[in-house]
Amino acid sequence: WSLPNAERYALQYADGRQTYITESNRRDIKNGSILRLTTSPDQEAERLYIGIQSKNVDVKTDSLKKLASLSHDVTFAQEFISRNGLKQIYSIVEEGNDTGEMLAHTLKAFTELMEHDFVSWENLSTVFIKKIVSYVNMNAVDASIQQLSLSILENMVPTSRLLFEVVKKEVTLDRLLTHLQVTNAQLQLKAMALLIALLLSAPDTERQEMMDYLREKNIRQFIHKNIIHSPEPLGDEMAHYLYVLQSVSLNLCEHRMKMSMDPYSQEQRDLLQSLRQAAFELESEAPAGTFSTERRRSLCAKEFRKLGFLNNSNPAEDLRRAPPGLLALDNMVYFSRNTPNAYSRFILENSSREDKHECPFARSSIQLTLILCEILHIGEPCSETAQAFYPMFFGQDHFFEELFCICIQLVNKTWKEMRATQEDFDKVMQVVREQITRTLSLKPTSLELFKTRVNTLNYSEILKLRQTERLHQEETLAVPVLELREKLKPELLELIRQQRLLHLCEGTLFRKISSRRRQDKLWYCRLSPNHKVLHYGDVEEGVQSPPIESLTEKIPVADMKMLLVGKECPHTKEKSSGKQNKDVLELAFSIVHDVEEYCLNFIAPTRYEFCLWTDGLNVLLGKEMTSERTQTDLDVLLSMELKLRLLDLENISIPDNPPPIPKPPSNLNFCYDFSHAEQ
Description:
Elements: E1 9-13, E2 35-39, H1 41-51, H2 57-70, H3 74-82, H4 85-95, H5 101-114, H6 126-137, H7 143-156, H8 161-170, H9 173-180, H10 185-201, H11 204-216, H12 219-228, H13 236-250, H14 254-257, H15 266-280, H16 293-306, H17 326-338, H18 340-351, H19 361-375, H20 399-417, H21 425-440, H22 447-456, H23 459-473, H24 479-506, E3 508-511, E4 522-527, E5 533-539, E6 553-556, E7 560-565, H25 570-573, H26 582-587, E8 588-593, E9 598-603, H27 607-620, H28 628-645
Antiparallel strand pairs: 1-2, 3-4, 4-5, 5-6, 7-8, 8-9
Helix pairs in contact: 1-2, 1-3, 2-5, 4-5, 4-6, 5-7, 6-7, 7-10, 9-10, 10-13, 15-17, 17-18, 17-19, 17-20, 19-20, 19-21, 20-21, 20-22, 24-27, 24-28
């Protein structure tokens, strides 16, 4: 347009995030995008840099407000930071005593600028950090300022050991617990985020101390009552933090799980002897002097054999295997001390059975502890996106031990139902594992409910479920049925294609995952009803299904070139320098459109959504549907269709070869002559 001083101007998107157009992103401009002519990022950065130093409060506040809204743009952020703009922000926070709107804009701008990773968090001054901490610790501060301050501290903690120490010292656990008890859900969420960041960054001993302190302060009961059972539905982020808290708590058992028994440790030997004494105390009441040493040793060995130790002369040998190590001994001792009646009943009941039918308590306990460790992922690092926590975990003190007490009694019950012998030990434990995992998948809200359900799911129920599943999986393998199956496939695949496209038309809510935060903004994508255009755009939290007109961005299906999944996606390659997240990799896919460099990147909320979207996009590209869900759906539909078609053939064996066609008759005079029908 031959503007004088053209370098002072720039183009910027008029809607959405209002990003500046640069040489690097100019090819991303879509047809129909509305752009506006505005001052260039360097001019704007200069103007705001001067504006935030103004003595006029209104000018300063407006400049900070504008700065907060522009700082998300990487081009602008670079220009502002290069002018030493962060130093001005530091000084506003360090020197200012204002806790109003101006401070909120300043903290928002700071958060956005730091998000670009141009400046290290370690460069922050002690004065600045203490000021941020003071906003968290003060009572009479606006909630938005406290949220931003908590968010800043959360981002700060994982970056260095020094910053972790500073934040841990200045923001007490008591203060965070106070924030957790507010009714403001966002403030509660940010407080939980900082608590989790501190726990994950702490060394093992400090983490143990922090968890012990939180236990003393009854955080478990508070979470169970006020967060899990609050009237508001639980958001994805809070669910993730509860999963991490559960994982960190359970991982405190890892140390004992990996420690083998030391036969020379008096403390451990005493624990082992306490098991024997608790079970056979009446028989052992005779004075020690009445038995010779040899006789006493023989009696102990007999009692340890009745307890179910394989090595009855030296039971410590059974506990040398790690995992489960000493955790199995801890569980057995807990069971014997906290439910003495159930413990005595278990031991005495099995002592009176025939040798081959007795359920070995110690051997079962060791194996059960290992099974529970595997099911609850003890000793495994936390996933960065998982949300699968058990509500009953927060409803019970000593969760792991109490769960063991229920499950060891289940082992005995299942053993009797299966009429098992020692040779069936592995089979019994396999059934018990299945009973536990199936019951946990129902997400019982309390251990009492878990106990009721797991006991209802007896051996005969497990057999019925297995039989049903096997019938679903097995297909008749007769040749005619296989031929019919192949004949039905194209029609059913077309049905699946239609379903996938319908799902794309309904659309899905996606989350943007940034490099620093686990989850960031929400956006929505859906296919137009005529299957010709993909519409997408940012949406606010709480919006379930925005109308297609509100999604401003578009990609014509004709411009789509290719679908990338997993490691091939550009947004997973960018993160490969850091710790690669397996969960995100499994849910990532991208659409390459126009020229090969430009992609629309997705991270599906679930594996199910990932399968439906990748299938639907492959259909639009004219390619085969490749997800595991396609095969599952096809198998289910084929199974149903075949069963319907073969209903009349129940209990009739289908031959592999068709019956022979008889020879044609010598004459065809028996044919009806239709030409004389009218006469």
